[in-house]
Amino acid sequence: MFSIHLLLILVLVLVGLVTAADLYKALEVPKSASEQEIKKAYKRLSKKYHPDKNQAPGAEDRFVDVAHAYEILSDATKRQIYDRHGEEGLRAHEGGQQHSNPFDMFSNFFGGGQQQQQQARRGPTSLTEFEVNIADMYKGSSIDFMIRKRILCDHCRGSGAASDRDIHQCSGCGGSGVKLVKQQIFPGMFAQSQVTCNDCSGRGTVIKKLCPHCKGEKVIDHTAQYTLEVIPGMPEEHEVVFDGEGDESPDWEAGDVILRVRSKKEKGGWRRKETSLYWKETIGVDEALLGFDRNLTHLDGHIVRLKREGVTQPGYVQVIEDEGMPVFEGPGAGNLFVEYNVVLPVQLSLDVRRKLAETFHPESSDRPGQDEL
To answer: What is the pTM of this model?
Structure first.
């Protein structure tokens, strides 16, 4: 009988552990994740699977699961009960209460609720000018890049202490973070004011032993890799936002990293203005006079046929429809403008000069001394 009871207890513990891992798995975070990491994971996943943005099968169910996991793991009391007893224990604690609407939670988290806006203190946002090849703007591309930033120390999780046992209540302010200071204004008259505690800098706690990894700084330097998805036809100066990827701190919610994308200026190469593309093509005098048929290799490698019959004046601009920059997130493309530059030869042979003279000045071909040209 004893062994049966022991087996049942073991099964219940294992079930609780499996269940406990499920909510963390839903948010794609480890069980040791900090409050800030849980919030960051919800922010990323809820935007990824929101039905307004993601129409894939199962996306809405995933969105609901992410909201449910965040509702429990973002609450310290619920998380503690869940870690120990799983969702069964949590249901017993809540007494059958209904869960929050996942869409209301999403709205409140992203600024729909005034209270959320007041509570969340955002860190600085970084803006970086990011240049890409004009070919990447034309055909689209995935570009990897690195960002050096500050993240919470992975050893102390941003507390700055070697362990939780090394964090103590400040004796100077009793944990309130402020002190009452009495100042004499006039003889026999005093004023009492409240100032930030200088022993704990207003935190209410002091650290007896600093974290050996970050030396009490709470954050460390970190180089993170990201991928910029360049969409065909992306406008110049278009800003791509990486939510919550700025410098981290225990005192604020990480700000954003913004890339302002523009194409590199290439001397003598392709130029762009909105959906129009510009190219300068060099031709010889013979082609300018007699016409030509040649190929131009476009930015993605496909061939554009350039054909002219008759005379092409220097500086003439040929318009080729639908060969310009693709319309950003839309159908169609702009136009390609080809400007022709005529190159004159450095010198002419006597035979060529004679033939040109006969062509342009036939009346002078019979004059004496013409052969001496």
So the answer is: 0.59
